[in-house]
Amino acid sequence: MEEKELSVLDKQRKRRKRVQRIRTGIITFISVWMILSIVLTAIMIVKMISLQKQIDYLAGHYNEAVSVSDTLTNSAADSGIVMQTMNAEENLAAEGDIHKVYLTFDDGPSDNTAEILDILDDYGIKATFFVNGREDENSIAMYKRIVDEGHTIGMHSYSHKYSEIYSSLEGFQNDFNRLQNLIYDTTGVECDLYRFPGGSSNRVSNTDMLEYIEFLNAQNVTYYDWNVSSGDATTQAFTSEELVENVLKDVVKYKTSVVLLHDAGNKTATVQALPGIIEALQQEGALILPIDKNTEIIQHTSIQQKHTEE
Ligand code: ZN
After folding, report:
1. From the CA of 164, how far away is ligand 1's center (Å)?
2. How far is the CA of 59 from the centre of ligand 1 (A)?
3. Ligand 1 center to residue 238 CA distance, Å?
4. Predicted pLDDT at 283
5. Across the chain, what does the average pLDDT equal?
6. Is the pLDDT assigned to residue 130 strictly greater than 80?
């Protein structure tokens, strides 16, 4: 009798143990599965955010590239560009004129800024940097170097996101103030120069560009477009030799050339082309200058000042 009872008890114990093991297994499985789901979801969210950022960036730069290729095809001689402030005709160089050339770098600071500054320094050249808003250590150092080394600093929007700056005047103003404050805080410069992402002739803004132009005028901020493009923002990947050619073939036409170049981490051809551009311009006898108050204003779109200054 006792033996029988013992074996029943033993069986019951074994069964309980088996159930316990199965339960532990199920709980472990569910826990692992839940943790994996959470981790995967987190990874997906991070990926999505980074993709959205890339889409915004590409959208911005695609449109910039489009307006750049517009300017490339519309050379100012047949003046597809509406240059009301200084018209293309007035700006055409005659034999013997000295060419004034303003090299402008958009989209920095980047991993290439230091090298661009070093090259400019090697040649004793001053240029203009239309910067975006970045607050990492390197970018802050680059804003300072640009100013300390005698270059002109201009604004090119904090975010460079078309969806933020071109959907409403309010969005544009917030972005503008943020960048102007950042430049002031890091360099002490009260920046009064602007270049619209995509240029004032961009076709992506949902708001009439004249609203933004009026706002900039009210802030006493001058915006510059460009009349010479290196082509370094087009989808066509020019070699550094071609970039030099692109710049030179247009510069020789004008008295004043504002040259569009880019200071971006992936634009190494621009950095490689820079010594060649400078040397070719110097051979041409051109004066390479930073934008200042005396620079002829090159704009694609502009409005007449409604009020004369007192
Ligand atoms: Zn840009």
Report:
1. 14
2. 11
3. 18
4. 96
5. 87
6. yes
**Residue 151 CA, ligand 1 centroid: distance in Å:** 18
pLDDT of residue 57: 55
- Ligand 1: distance of its center to the CA of 91 in Å? 25
Lowest mean pLDDT among 41-50, 65-74, 160-169, 243-252: 65-74
Q: How far is the CA of 120 from the centre of ligand 1 (A)?
A: 21
Which residue's entry shows tokens 């934008």? Answer: 291
Q: How far is the CA of 11 from the centre of ligand 1 (A)?
A: 77
Angle at 172 between CA 170 and CA 174, to 5 degrees: 70
Task: Report the predicted TM-score, pTM, of the whole model to 2 decimal places.
Answer: 0.74
170 CA → ligand 1 middle, Å? 20
Residue 203 tokens, joined: 């076709």
Q: What pLDDT, on the 0 to 100 scale, is given for residue 84?
A: 45
